[in-house]
Design brief:
single chain, mainly alpha, Rossmann fold, Arc Repressor Mutant, subunit A, 7 domains, five-stranded parallel beta sheet, two-stranded antiparallel sheet, globular
Length: 787
């Protein structure tokens, strides 16, 4: 028999990305004799396997592709492999014997493509051939592993696409394989198509909506012959109707995305199909408890859920994720939409949505009840993870008749542990406003929700609207005579006057709030009343009374293991101490509050403590660091919608500090340090504020910790502090040495893609367009010059 060299097809289109995956396949094939590429339909398993096989061709005597997609009878698997390889031996009892004989005498790479519907037969054949042919390697593609000894499974993920809200520019988009694939395929059907400033946002959104799935992106690209990118994004609500422009040469199940997903669906047992459709009710990732609460019954027992989830994971129809040690599951949007279309009808969908809402309403109530206590960190993490589910639950309350009141209760429960704690003020206002509009009945619930809405509004500095909401809440609370609502309105009224700087008017309201909140047992309200009253009393000059109130507030947090409110007590107490000239205590207290706020993710508290530390530094003559922290504080505050002048006294301190810095540094130096502060990430700003980053940086520059002021004119100019991170500085130094990205990756033991990302960020930070400019900048810094 004449030896065949293989049958790998020639590429008809370019291959985009997947460099890391190709390298990993090469490594695995050198260590394992069976590698199975698994992943959701359309993710590109076949194309990746073919490219990997083509790259490995020289290492084998022959490379064969066996397409099993059209084989429906398991008994024909071995026959199909033999026929593909041209193996014929009439004397053999079965084709497997002939395959064993041929493969045992040569080094072969066998690509078994589309094994999922013939999993058992493929597993038996692969096991037998691998035992008989020691030089055989098998690269399989399947929705799930074959499950035999020695197999190494490699999950293939969708192509990388930009995350939502990530700043975009043309160079950064080129780093994403999903964008590159769309651009290349679009240019093939629409010559001249490129990513421009006008369409870059739409291109990124299109690839996000398609989950980075290569097949979906390629089918979408075909539609760009008739639609603009923006129009295609708008019409993707019914993606299965649109994405039907696949190649007519493809097998039928790949001609449309619907057919591709339906292929997977029909292969499943009934219980797995049922769970798939029910899981589609979750808008994002979810945990096991949620599945058991929402999806069980009518054919799915609670005890079976874990096994069914495991089966869907094994078939690549679910993704498993870990968030802070918690295991969660996620279904790609494409599969979720297919599952929703497979629900039996509107009645089943509403039933699932109601069960989904009930589960997350109970979660919100539990979070609210346990918020003031030692579990705040875990509740913050949990609610942040469940944000999409909470939104979907509240949206159901608005869409479904007679459910708005439950939605209002849910929104109220989330005010403290979710929206105030995370500084999600706009989010909270959005839901409270909608729920209040849908529930106009004069109830205690409405009075409390109006007051919560007013607090969020006032926190953002919208005084007029906040006072209107508060007046309506107070009138309703007085009419109904509810003690809890009256206590809350007293508190928020006192906060409003405090923000306005009228402490003589605010303090009596807050004194009343302290008594009323304590009487009704609202510990969160009591703590806020104590903090605000302490600040107001201190502003009027009674520092002893202020200290007493602050210490009472700290004792309250300690008694209950509470952290979020404690961070605020420490921050406001630090201001009081700073006003009294106790800079050392104020700095220590602000830093403790900053670290607590960082752990909690409370960006508003972080912004405030950065500002307080800047005031202390400015008073101590550390003007440059103070200017940077002041700018970083403002930037973080803007990111959460925090009005810098919400509290009048706070605004006065801010302006006084800014004036002092301008006088000390001069306009030019202040502007320079402000730009540096604007460029700091939140974590970098925190690191500088607690001392480590500033002291390390100054020590490297040979400066004292006390100050990094501009050098006198008669001295040679010193290099400015670098805006680059430590890793970016290392890479910039290697660029200056003339190293390529590949050489840098090798030197630093990181991937080349990571290096490319760092280089992109260095160019953006420095405002440069080439590596030569980076090298020149580094040379200037080395000579002590200014960039």
């Amino acid at each position: 028999m004449t030896r065949q060299v293989g049958n790998l097809p020639a590429d008809l289109t370019s291959f985009v990305g997947r460099r890391r995956e190709l390298a990993e396949i090469r490594r695995l094939l050198s260590a394992s004799r069976l590698v199975t590429l698994t992943g959701v339909g359309g993710v590109g398993k076949t194309r990746l396997a073919l490219r990997a096989a083509a790259e490995q061709r020289r290492a084998f005597d022959s490379v064969w592709l066996v397409d099993l997609s059209t084989v429906t009878d398991p008994a024909l698997v071995a026959e199909t492999v033999a026929a593909t390889m041209g193996v014929r031996d009439e004397a053999a009892d079965c084709p497997v014997d002939a395959l064993e004989q041929v493969l045992s005498s040569q080094r072969t790479l066998l690509v078994l493509d589309n094994c999922e519907h013939l999993r058992d037969a493929c597993a038996v054949l692969a096991d037998r051939l691998l035992r008989a042919a020691p030089e055989l390697r098998i690269l399989a593609t399947s929705r799930q592993s074959l499950g035999i000894t020695g197999e190494h499974q490699m999950k293939i993920s969708p192509l990388p696409v930009p995350e939502p809200d990530r700043p975009l520019n043309r160079r950064s988009l080129e780093l994403y394989d999903g964008i590159s694939l769309l651009t290349e395929r679009a240019a093939a059907v629409l010559p001249g198509f490129t990513v421009t400033e006008d369409n870059q946002a739409a291109v990124a959104e299109l690839c996000r909506q398609l989950d980075g799935i290569p097949l979906a992106i390629e089918l979408a690209a075909v539609r760009l012959r008739a639609l603009s990118v923006n129009a295609l994004v708008e019409r993707l609500r019914d993606r299965y109707r649109l994405l039907t422009g696949g190649s007519s040469a493809a097998v039928p199940r790949q001609q449309t995305l619907h057919a591709l997903v339906d292929w997977s669906f029909q292969l499943l047992p009934a219980a797995e199909r049922t769970l798939w459709t029910r899981l589609s009710i979750f808008p994002s990732h979810f945990d096991l408890d949620a599945v058991e609460a929402v999806c069980t019954g009518d054919g799915i027992e609670r005890d079976d859920v874990l096994d069914l989830l495991d089966a869907l994971l094994d078939k690549s129809l679910l993704l498993r994720e870990e968030h802070g040690g918690a295991v969660r599951y996620r279904m790609l949007d494409t599969l979720r939409e297919f599952g929703r279309k497979r629900l039996s009808g509107p009645a089943e969908r509403r039933s699932l949505q109601r069960r989904h809402r009930d589960h997350y309403f109970l979660l919100a109530r539990q979070a609210d009840a346990e918020w003031f206590g030692p579990d705040q960190f875990s509740w913050l993490r949990r609610l942040n993870l469940e944000q999409a589910n909470l939104r979907a639950a509240m949206d159901f309350c608005l869409q479904e008749p007679c459910e708005a009141e439950t939605g209002l209760r849910m929104a109220l429960c989330l005010t403290d542990p979710c929206w105030l704690a995370n500084a999600y003020y706009n989010e909270g206002r959005h839901w409270l406003d909608r729920m209040l509009w849908a529930t106009p009945e004069p109830t205690v619930l409405r009075a409390l929700a109006l007051c919560a809405d007013a607090e969020l509004v006032l926190t953002q500095g919208d005084t007029d609207r906040g006072r209107r909401l508060l007046a309506e809440s107070r009138a309703l609370a007085e009419r109904l005579g509810d003690p809890e609502a009256l206590a809350q309105t007293s508190l928020v009224a006192g906060m409003a006057e405090h923000y306005a700087g009228d402490y003589a008017k605010a303090n009596p309201l807050l004194e009343r709030a302290v008594a009323e909140e304590e009487a009704v047992g609202n510990l969160s309200g009591l703590l806020i009343a104590l903090i605000t009253l302490a600040a107001g009393v201190g502003y009027l000059g009674d520092r002893a009374r202020a200290t007493e109130l602050f210490e009472r507030a700290l004792a309250l947090t300690e008694a209950h293991g509470e952290c979020s409110g404690r961070a605020w007590v420490l921050a406001i107490f630090a201001i009081s101490l700073w006003q009294g000239g106790e800079n050392a205590r104020a700095l220590a207290m602000a830093r403790e509050a900053l670290l607590l706020a960082r752990d909690l993710g409370d960006r508003m508290n972080i912004a405030m403590n950065l500002e307080i530390i800047a005031w202390v530094q400015a008073d101590e003559g550390r003007h440059a660091p103070a200017a940077r922290l002041l700018a970083a504080s403002e930037e973080i505050g803007r990111s959460v919608g925090m009005a810098p002048c919400r509290d009048r006294r706070f605004a006065e301190f801010h302006e006084r500090c800014l004036t002092d810095l301008r006088t000390s540094l001069g306009d030019r130096a202040l502007s320079r340090e402000t730009r540096r502060g604007d460029r700091l990430t939140m974590n970098e700003a925190i690191e500088e504020a607690i001392g480590d980053r500033a002291e390390r940086g100054l020590a490297r520059a040979g400066e004292t910790v006390a100050e990094a002021e501009p050098a006198p004119p008669e001295r040679p100019p010193a290099a400015e502090p670098s805006p680059l991170t430590r890793r970016e500085q290392e890479i910039a130094e290697l660029i200056a040495q003339g190293r390529s990205n590949k050489e840098i990756a090798s030197a630093l033991v990181i991937s080349q893609r990571t290096v490319e990302g760092h280089v992109e960020r260095i160019l953006d930070k420095l405002g440069f367009a080439s590596r030569a400019q980076i090298a020149a900048w580094m040379a200037a810094r080395g000579a002590g010059g200014r960039s």
